[in-house]
Amino acid sequence: DAGITQSPRHKVTETGTPVTLRCHQTENHRYMYWYRQDPGHGLRLIHYSYGVKDTDKGEVSDGYSVSRSKTEDFLLTLESATSSQTSVYFCAISESGPNTEAFFGQGTRLTVV
Amino acid sequence: SQQGEEDPQALSIQEGENATMNCSYKTSINNLQWYRQNSGRGLVHLILIRSNEREKHSGRLRVTLDTSKKSSSLLITASRAADTASYFCATDALDSSYKLIFGSGTRLLVRP
């Protein structure tokens, strides 16, 4: 299995609080992605990174920010959590972007109450 | 909006039968990938087909790509109960970005 770890695996937080999810990889892959998965919507891209300090928005980036200060870590922050951000969040890594296979973490189940 | 849309949304078949899932996408692509997700788990890559390829095989999997129709199909032959999972197609965005965009998936149930 590719070395990719998401933390925490489960989190319950209150509306209005900031939340940070971490994706850590040991594969030295350049590309990293954050997705959310909701019933009926498949996986939707939130943000992605194509190198250290290089990030860009995906399809559903409002209310989220990311940072990548080193190759191995890609952080996703919900600036002020809302109930609509209750979801399962997946991180993925890829050696060469969308032209090669991506490896996924096990997901973080986030509940905003 | 999502680049790829799978059809059907759900499929139930008997063990031993073949399962066919389709993916349609909106814009030109460089490649298309198929992934599998077991319940509650992360996705696992199955196969990648490039835009200049028409068909690709991997074990019991057969993928076709028709760029003129902007569609792909995934065929699983001689299905097994263990094939029960959700299947997703994913494409690049061809907008000079590095996005990897997923469809909404097909839920496959293989009955023993």
Please write out the topology.
The complex is a heterodimer of chains A (113) and B (112).
Chain A: E1 4-7, E2 10-13, E3 19-25, E4 31-38, E5 42-51, E6 54-57, E7 64-70, E8 73-78, E9 87-94, E10 102-104, E11 108-112
Parallel strand pairs in A: 2-11
Antiparallel strand pairs in A: 1-3, 3-8, 4-5, 4-9, 5-6, 7-8, 9-10, 9-11
Chain B: E1 4-7, E2 10-14, E3 19-25, E4 31-37, E5 43-50, E6 55-58, E7 61-66, E8 71-76, E9 85-92, E10 100-102, E11 106-111
Parallel strand pairs in B: 2-11
Antiparallel strand pairs in B: 1-3, 3-8, 4-5, 4-9, 6-7, 7-8, 9-10, 9-11
Strand content of chain B: over 45%
Biggest interface and its residues per chain? A-B, 28 and 28 residues
Tell how many strands the DSSP assignment of chain A holds: 11
Alpha-beta classification of chain A: mainly beta
Helix content of chain A: under 10%
Percent of residues in helices of chain B comes to under 10%
Q: Identify the overall geometry of chain A.
A: globular
| Mean pLDDT figure of chain B | 92
Percent in strands of chain A = over 45%
Number of discrete helical segments of chain A: 0
* Class from secondary-structure proportions of chain B: mainly beta
Task: Describe what this molecule looks like in 3D.
The complex is a heterodimer of chains A (113) and B (112). Helices cover 0% and strands 58% of the residues of chain A. Chain A has no helices and eleven strands. In chain A, strands 2, 4, 5, 6, 9, 10 and 11 form a seven-stranded mixed sheet that branches. Chain A starts with a strand and ends with a strand. The model of chain A has no long low-confidence stretch (mean pLDDT 95). Chain B is mainly beta. Helix content of chain B is 0%, strand content 57%. Chain B is built from no helices and eleven strands. In chain B, strand 7 and strand 8 form a beta hairpin. Chain B is globular. Chain B starts with a strand and ends with a strand. In chain B, 38% of the residues are buried. At the A-B interface, strand 4, strand 5, strand 9 and strand 10 of A face strand 4, strand 5, strand 9 and strand 10 of B.
